[in-house]
Amino acid sequence: MSLLVNNVKKAFDTKVVLDEASFEFEKGKIYGVLGRNGAGKTTLFNCISKNIEIDEGSIELIEGEESIDLNYKNVGFVYTIPVLPVFLTGYEFIKFFVEVNEEYITDLKTIDEYLDMVDIKPEDRHKLIKGYSHGMQNKLQLLCTIIIKPAVILLDEPLTSFDVVVAHEVKQLLLELKKEHIILMSTHIVQLAKDMCDELVILQNGKLTGMKNESESLEEFEAQLIDMLKEEQDNGEIKEDI
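Structure (tokenized):
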């Protein structure tokens, strides 16, 4: 299985964000999508998830010879800022989510077992989500993706709001998930990209370029990455959150 981004163009008014961007993402890998602020990483993720329409090109999920339609069942998007029904408790939300999506869930667990997976404490499970910290809300959002296990998982700046212990646990979950999934992860944390990603994809000047994660030291890796990103021309600010 692979996710094929083919000559994708996306512009907002006169600002070109993606300019004939092409790349093939394969199952079994975590890809780190890196770029300077405003390069278009979130826009790329929104195009893949069909939150916004592309202007030209195509984005396809390929299984053998078959092209599979991209929809909410096979694309999971974990946003930087969680989008959750804050009027529900954490327990109520996950219970509702499981009931609505039960036909798509394999290895069904209890609600408490799911909440254990992302370390939502028993004393917090029946509190309203609006009272949760940003990190706790991010845990719930990520848990939905873990429950459904979609073919493509998009992580926009993950782990930034987690404490050290939970971040480690989530990393282990993602490393296990990657065996049967295509995972794209945007991040500004070079150490995280080095530790977790099998391959890096640089987004600059609207195009996607692959970079192997083969440097032995973090310093060498960071220097190579900075050299690539410095080549980008300053074409003005790109608003990614449209």
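DSSP finds seven helices and ten strands in the chain. Residues 161 and 216 are 28 Å apart (CA to CA).
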